[in-house]
Amino acid sequence: MPHDHDDHQHDNELDPMAARVRALETILTEKGLIDPLAIDAIVETYETKVGPRNGAKVVAKAWSDAGFSEWLKRDATAAIASLGFSGRQGEHMQAVFNTEETHNLVVCTLCSCYPWSVLGLPPVWYKSPPYRSRAVIDPRGVLAEFDVILPETTHIRVWDSTAELRYLVVPVRPEGSDDLNEEQLTDLVTRNSMIGTGFALPPVKP
Amino acid sequence: MNLHDPVDAPAGSATETPVFAEPWQAEAFAMVVALHERKLFTWSEWAQALSSEIKKAETRGEASNYYQCWLAALESLITGMNIAPKSDIDLLTRAWQRAALATPHGQPIRLENDPDRL
Fold it and tell me: Exposed (0-12), middle (13-18) or buried (19+): which is A83, by Cβ within 10 Å?
C-alpha cells in the first residue's frame, strides 16, 4: 500500500483531547503541583497492579475463613486493608453478602464511584447511563441482560455508591467448591460477581 | 440494548478489556489522583465536579465519552481554583498541536518544537 507524504505528517497529529491533557500536564508541572514521574507511576499501578484479582482474594478468604468473613461484615475497610488493599481516596468500604434470600447489586447513579482498591477501574457498562439509571428502576431486568436469573423469591437489594462509601459484593460460594483451597477459590470469583451482575463460576470438574 | 461485556472471565485474567482506551485517558485519570493526593480537593468535591460534567453531557445527548467528562471536570477544578485561566489552557493546547505537527515522525513530541513558541 502506498504511503504518501501527507499520511506521514499526520502520524504526529495530536487529537484535541490528547493535546488538552498535555496542556494541563504542562501547567500543573510548571506550578509544581504534579510530578510527571508520579503520573507515570499512577498509570502503571492502575493498568497492571490494581484490579479485580484483589477483590477475588478478599472473597476467597471470606469463603474459607469464618473469622475473616465476620470481620469483613463488621468493618470491611479494616478487613480489606489487612490484605494490603487500601483506597487512595480515603473511602470506606462495605461488604454486602449474597444469600439465597438476598442478591446485592452495586451501582453509582451519580457518576461512577467504584471500589478501585479491590476491583480496579470500572468497566465501560458500569459508567454507562442505561446501567446507572436502570439498575435502580428495574434491577431484575438489568440482571437478566447479564444472564443473572434469580428466583422470584430472591429479594434484590441495590446499593448506590458514593465518593465516601463503596460496596463489594461477596457472591454465594459455588456448590461443589468445598474441597478447594483459598488460592483455587480465587479463580472462581469474577469481577461481575463482585458488582452483583454475575455469579461466581462453578468449579471445573477434574 | 446490550449492557455488558461478552464474557465475564475470572477476575484478573487476560481476556479482560484494557482499563484505558487511549493514553490521554490514563494521564487525565492519573492527574486527578495525584492532585487529590496533594489535597487540592477532596474526593467528594471531585465526584461532584465529575457528576456535574456527566449530567451536562447527558443533557447534550453525548453521554458516551466518560473520560471527556473526566477531563472537563479536571479543567473546571483547575480554573475554579484559579490555578490557570481557560485562555491559558486553550493557548497551550494549540501550542501542543503545532508542536506535534512540527515533530518528525518517530521522535517524541516536545513543546519546544512549537514553531510559534514565544
Answer: middle
